[in-house]
Design brief:
single chain; about 325 residues; alpha/beta; Cytosolic phospholipase A2 catalytic domain; 8-stranded mixed β-sheet; 16 helices; 8 strands; globular
Length: about 325
């Protein structure tokens, strides 16, 4: 496994705060020519999973290296926040922003929870990092022809709601909402709604990609084959107290395992039918949802990078509507 410093050095200066060149009319015209060789009704679907999303980050890095830009991308939770860097076409940034600051208490920690009311450091992750430490290319992101959707959970209805690129303003409030984990992060108010982690209502947003009109889907999962989620009934008393104003949210949390497992069955069935291509770790990831271990995170990223690289010809064929 390459050392973290070596990986960072390999991507230094490549699209840091920069995406594609500024001649956008010409440049994006060229990108659309690329799409003429790609089925335009194809979607990239990214599951969350906390820090296990590093597998998907590795997959998306490989897609960028091969200039495979999907016409449609949808993600929930950490899958939404990390796919934004894929849409802005910033090679190497996905690894840097997840690993370089992981041991900074402002990124994710109990200190952040007790001092600022959120285990996930929203102001640091969606403020300090994209604005100053590792700039996010808003210009390329918004100009990209890729349709990008971010899923969150409406606390009042317990249902999934989706937002587009136009909602990803400078403070990235909608991304804060999508990664706001229940119990350890605050409810985020945005667009007249009260929102939490998008993975609660729709853990794997394949239905959204289907609703968008896509007929083929590349789905990136965070867990190994055979994994099924278990109920969290032991949390019921706590959830009812903390979210007493949101009974529909409590219901959604207590039934999340059912939706997740049904979604996995749908993904696997559609894979057999040839309309879904799945990328996922083949063994149980050593990375926990809230991991702070840079070496383990980098190893999972490298696994995603390798897996996507090994299947790149299959991916290209699938994206052209073949296979």
């Amino acid at each position: 496994m390459a050392r973290i410093g070596e990986l960072r050095h390999a991507t230094e200066g490549v699209n840091q705060g920069k995406g594609i060149d500024r001649g956008k009319a010409v440049q994006y015209g060229y990108r659309r020519k690329e799409w003429s060789r790609m089925d335009e009704k194809v979607g990239l679907v990214i599951e969350g999973g906390g820090m296990r999303v590093l597998y998907a980050v590795g997959v998306m890095e490989q897609l960028l290296r091969h200039e495979l830009h999907f016409p449609y991308v949808v993600g929930v939770s950490a899958g939404a926040s990390n796919s934004a860097t894929y849409v802005s076409r910033q090679k190497g940034r996905g690894l840097r922003v997840n690993v370089d600051y992981i041991r900074d208490w402002r990124y994710m920690s109990w200190r952040s929870f007790f001092l600022r009311g959120s285990y996930v450091g929203h102001d640091f992750i969606f403020g300090e990092i994209p604005a100053r430490l590792d700039p996010f290319d808003f210009e390329t992101f918004h100009a990209s022809p890729t349709r990008y959707e971010i899923g969150a959970t409406d606390c009042r209805t317990g249902e999934a709601v989706f937002f587009g690129k136009a909602d990803a303003t400078e403070r990235l409030e909608v991304l804060r909402a999508s990664v706001s984990l229940p119990l350890i992060c605050p409810v985020v108010r945005f667009g007249g709604r009260e929102l939490l982690d998008g993975g609660v209502a729709m853990p794997i947003p394949l239905p959204r990609s289907i609703a968008a009109g896509n007929t083929r889907h590349v789905v990136v999962l965070s867990r190994e084959p055979g994994y099924r989620k278990k109920p969290v009934n032991h949390l019921k008393p706590l959830l009812k107290v903390v979210y007493r104003r949101y009974p529909k949210l409590v219901e959604a949390m207590l039934t999340r395992h059912e939706r997740y497992n049904r979604a996995l069955e749908q993904v696997e069935r559609m894979e057999q039918e040839g309309t879904v291509l799945i990328l996922r770790p083949q063994e149980k990831p050593r990375v926990s949802r809230l991991s702070h271990d840079p070496a383990q995170l980098t190893a999972l990223y490298e696994q995603g990078l390798r897996d996507a690289g090994a299947r790149i010809d299959e991916l290209k064929s699938f994206l052209k509507g073949k296979g």
